[in-house]
Each structure stands twice: as structure tokens, then as C-alpha cells.
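User: For a benchmark we're assembling, each entry needs the component sequences followed by a predicted structure for the full assembly. Here are entry 17's components. Please fill in the structure.
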Amino acid sequence: AQSVTQLDSQVPVFEEAPVELRCNYSSSVSVYLFWYVQYPNQGLQLLLKYLSGSTLVKGINGFEAEFNKSQTSFHLRKPSVHISDTAEYFCAVSALGGGATNKLIFGTGTLLAVQP
Amino acid sequence: DTGVSQNPRHKITKRGQNVTFRCDPISEHNRLYWYRQTLGQGPEFLTYFQNEAQLEKSRLLSDRFSAERPKGSFSTLEIQRTEQGDSAMYLCASSLKGGTGGNTIYFGEGSWLTVV
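Assistant: Structure for entry 17:
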């Protein structure tokens, strides 16, 4: 079974400042890792995903994340945030393997609140 | 629009009534997922279809819940004898099957259910 921990329920940050949203996971099997963003009253949109290869993954809207296997982490970063980045961010994992359902297991989310 | 479509977007119902939600996945996607999301929480997996076959159901999916995907196209999620605890957003998602997984899962905008 897999689980995801997002320790920060809310991260306030000023516009144009850098931000890091933390994600740690637990799994008995190899996993794929994802970050999704959810704007108010909307569904989820994929920001980026790590499947294999380079541990630094670049996504949309200037976000990037780094996979750290030894620390079982997949933290999301952005060097300079905008007001429009205000949203809920979810880290998720899915089990690797052709027979897997690839269902996503989500963390509880982190609200990124960008202030002017 | 080639995204995942859900309707109705909002439903208010009295306790004890039945409700049905519909999901139209991205046309070429053969995998379809239902999730439930309550306020302040991440989405929780409910069930998964590959084509018309329902291959996995979460323990969250009580006997009052039933999902179908006739002909492997659209899907419906019915909740019978609704309870106030069923109030949540119900998210549908779809993806392609292939390889060892990791295919992007695309989400609809969700269907909000309020049971009064």
C-alpha cells in the first residue's frame, strides 16, 4: 500500500518570492510521483510527474520537483510565484507495474496562498 | 472540448433520495476512475474501470453506491438512499492503459453533492 504526507496544510508567501511545497511518500513497491493543482471549484490539473530518469522534473507554469529516493520525498518548487498560483496543490503516487490499476493515492493537499 | 466531462456540476438532494452522476471520459481513454473529495482533503479513490469491466472497488464504496460503464464509454455513479455524509465532490478521471503505467490521469471538473 502507498501513502502520501503533505505536512504543510497552508503555505503563505509573498508575490515574486520562492516557494517549496513538501511531499513525502511511503510505499512497499516502486512508484510514480505526481503533483496536481486544483483551483477553486475546479477539477485537478497535472503540473508534473516523475516516472524515471532525471530526478529533477520540470512542469507547467514554471514549477519543478525533485525526486529523492533515499528521503522518499518529491518536493515542489517555484523560484518566483504569482498571485495566479494561489491554489490547492496535491502530491500523489501510483504503483509502478503493467498489472497495476495506476490509481492515484493523494496527500491531503497544501494551500498555496500568494499575497501581494 | 476533448476533456473529461461531468454532469450535473451541482446537485442538492434531500436525505434518502437517490442521485446519479454521469462522466464522459476523453474519447480514446479506456481507463476510467471515480474519486470522492471532501473539504480540506485530497481525492480518495472509489472505483476503476478498464473498458466496461469494473476491476477495483474501494472499501469506501458502500452497498449504496453503484458505478457502471456500459460499452466502455460513459460512466454513471449512483448513490442510493443518500446520507449527509455523502456530501462531497465526486471526481471522474480517465487515462490510457499502456506500458508499466504512469500514463497521465485527466480529471473532470467534478460534481458537487450536497445532502440536506
